[in-house]
Amino acid sequence: MLMTHQELGASEIVSFEDLRAMADAKSPCITVALAIPNPLQIRAHTTNTIREVEKRLHEANAEDLTIEALVEPIRALVASIEAKGEWAKGLILYRSPDLFRHFSMRDPVKDFVHVGHRFQIRPLLSVLSRHQRFYLLALSQKDVRLFHCTQHSTEELPFKGLAPQNLRDWMNIRIPDHVLDNRAAAGPSVGSMKGVMFGTSTDRERQDEYLVHFFKEIEKAAQKRLADKTIPLVLAGVEAEVALYRRINTYPRLMERAVHGSPDGLSVGELHERALKIVQQTFSAPLKKVMDEFDEYRGANSVRFGIEEILKAAWDGRVADLLIREDAERLGVCDDGAPQVQVGIDSRAEDLLNLAAVWTVSQKGQAFALQTSDMPEGADAAAILRY
Known about the structure:
Layout lengths: L4 H4 L7 H8 L5 E7 L6 H18 L4 H21 L5 E7 L2 E7 L6 E5 L5 H7 L4 E6 L6 E6 L3 E3 L10 H8 L8 E3 L9 E3 L5 H23 L7 E5 L1 H10 L10 E2 L7 H12 L5 H8 L1 H6 L3 E2 L2 H9 L3 E7 L5 E3 L8 E2 L6 E2 H11 L3 E5 L10 E5 L2
């Protein structure tokens, strides 16, 4: 099956809809994790990986025509990446007779090839645990800029006449007489006067007052450009100006931490990197909700920690939310239709935590991967049950 140009483009965003599609895929299911530490090595590296895929398919008794049909889009993807020079630290590919998905990974990945009845979706669960998109507002008296960001890319959102993007232009428009005096709105008793003086102030206080009014214009314009109010917003700017903006901000998802320092001397890439570090230190909105309510669920006896019990509940569609420790390993056998768990290693052993995640998302549940320090009781897995 030939892939279209759109299908060849690696996804930057992982969704639970993606995972559900992969959970329902027909076998054989090919999962490839491909590290790309050096772009110059990609051709030799991927050639060896494709050979390993073909070998595993032969061992699974797949026919030659089936193998070629499954491998062809992987070759096409690699060729496209090399031609465009689109590099990431890693790539996760999922291929079955009825599905092809691939995701750029910002963090390094360990190479592996897996061919079996199910995809290995655990590498994507860490991505779902963090914000995958965010807004970045770079505050500056010289040039205010707004960006929509993913973990891999940055797109500027121009204000398009909604507000002047620097303080000088705003002052020229709003205060054409250049007197730059603080004024208060006139009441009925002042007759035809358009405004009245309200005292004196230091130059610094006066400058801050102008800046606050300028930022109010920026805030109104930003609200119109921030289409998705569920995405976090990161501020970048010198500390005093960030503090001024926070006073007038009404955006509901403004992050507490900011990129401090003048953004004028930073490239877009540097701003993105610094903001991303802040964003990745907080849970995604769905995971934060789970963690905030975890003790409440535990008090209601709706939490399970044992892998055997979790698997049985996941098979029955009872797991609403599943938490997995990123570095946990639990191998065993658990046959579909009769989830009698045998923990240990034999010829049929598989990753039981991955299996629990597959069954959870296939029943419209959520699954996340967390670091040991974030896992409740440091457990391998924890499941919140629907009933």
